[in-house]
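Run: sequence + adenosine-5'-diphosphate -> complex structure.
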Amino acid sequence: MKNIAIYPGSFDPITNGHVDIIERALKIFDGLLVAVLENPSKDRLFTAEERMSMIRDIFSSKPEVKVQSFHGLLVDFAKKNKARIVIRGLRAVSDFEYEFQMALMNHKLNPNLETFFMMPSIRYTFLSSNMVKEVHRLGGCVRDLVPSVVERKLDEKNRQERGSFS
Ligand code: ADP
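>> structure
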């Protein structure tokens, strides 16, 4: 049986930190299902479709990376996709407590599901989607922080938003 892992998150938008985790995971697992959380209650810059399309674009040459959206419990999504491993990225200390709680809760809901933590390269340790959005909105350069397709889409969004105010 192929060893497929799920990498869930908001990816609003995907950053080089996420890409780094995906590339590391591909060295260990046969395939990776990137699961984009559709969470209408959270304030998102990009729709789930837009977030998925950026990820598909970045990994278009890697058929072992699949992208799907999901809502509801991760354990249900994992079961439906016959995956037993969840990948999460760990940045500086700030991620630890939340990730620890989630991993324990998911394991309680489904004891067959294991969470696998991976650390990114040190240069992405303080990188988050929120930071990228904020810096870009204020006119800062995010070139080294996100893939070029994401930078382009951020520019488009900013132009659209500015347009809608004029
Ligand atoms: P969430 O909205 O659930 O925090 P994200 O899309 O921000 O989801 O992140 C998905 C996963 O990727 C989480 O495990 C998060 O810790 C991890 N992650 C996000 N940014 C980075 C980064 N720069 N380096 C390593 N892991 C990261």
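>> summary
The chain has six helices and five strands. The domain at 4-125 is CATH 3.40.50.620 (Rossmann fold).
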